[in-house]
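Give me the fold.
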Amino acid sequence: MQRNTAKHFLFALFAFLIAFSVHAEKLPNIMILATGGTIAGSGATSTTTVGYTAATVGVQQLINAVPELAKISNVTGEQVFQIASESMTNEHWLTLGKRVNVLLAQPNVDGIVITHGTDTLEETAYFLNLVVKSRKPVVLVGAMRPGTALSADGPINLYNAVLIAGSQEAIGKGVLVALGDQIHGARDVTKTNTSTPDSFKTPELGMLGYVQGPKAFFYHSTTRKHTVDSEFDISNLSALPQVDIVYGYANMNSVALNAFIAAGAKGIIHAGTGDGSVAAKVKPDLAAARKNGTVIVRASRVGNGILARNGEANDDELDFVVADTLSPQKARILLMLGMTKTSNTKELQRMFYTY
């Protein structure tokens, strides 16, 4: 009797181990690339939600803080940078983009999550959206409050990001941003508040979906080209052309514009008022800059809407490019990448209507 009981126990244990092994094999393999930011930050007290120190916690500590990750994925971490995201540079982007492409080419990597500071998260996401060469999910995630705060949003955001990166539904959707149980597309998402947890929104064109329970739900997809359908290749790039942003305002002058050009800017994003309006006393200097070879892109500081070509300026005559619906900071990214291929303004305009 005891012998039979022992046999039954061993058989049950063996069956459990097989089932557990099969289950584990089915879990997606997700690589978490850490770059710093608030999600890796710490404050002096549990009520410190502003005035904290960003980028103090390493990737393994982030993973250990969310043990539930082991139930939904096989997670591996890598510390790529440890910086506050306002210090993100073109060189950081090139390094990150190349690393993402190397990892996604590996058959044992099903998706990538990138932890990132929220200040420039939308910019890094859009850059990657243009240069990643895979349909596998890439999800950027951050936090508006440090992990030491009573109401820290980093752990649930990280859990959701890993869940999205491992989902079949996210394949081919382009680079995604996950905060506050919402899924946003890299092209159109933006940070809208300095400090509240619901800061990330896609105001007019709308988020792509939600995370609820153990599943990612998608309701929309972008119509603009991205990732594997992008024409941009950074594999052999060591630098990007210098492109700067000139901000429009009442009583604007050309001091900043001329300083950027003198400092070597190859392109200028003019973040104009309204529909990208150009002040009368700045227009001659923009026109002169274009005649001397600097590419000028008219964008708007407004934050929403299509920028009309030949609307507030005669773009055809001045040989300017318009940013379509891209924010000035994202227009800068597309122009930099576009200028690695061409300086022809008609081709650059095509890119702005494509991406």
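The radius of gyration is 23 Å.
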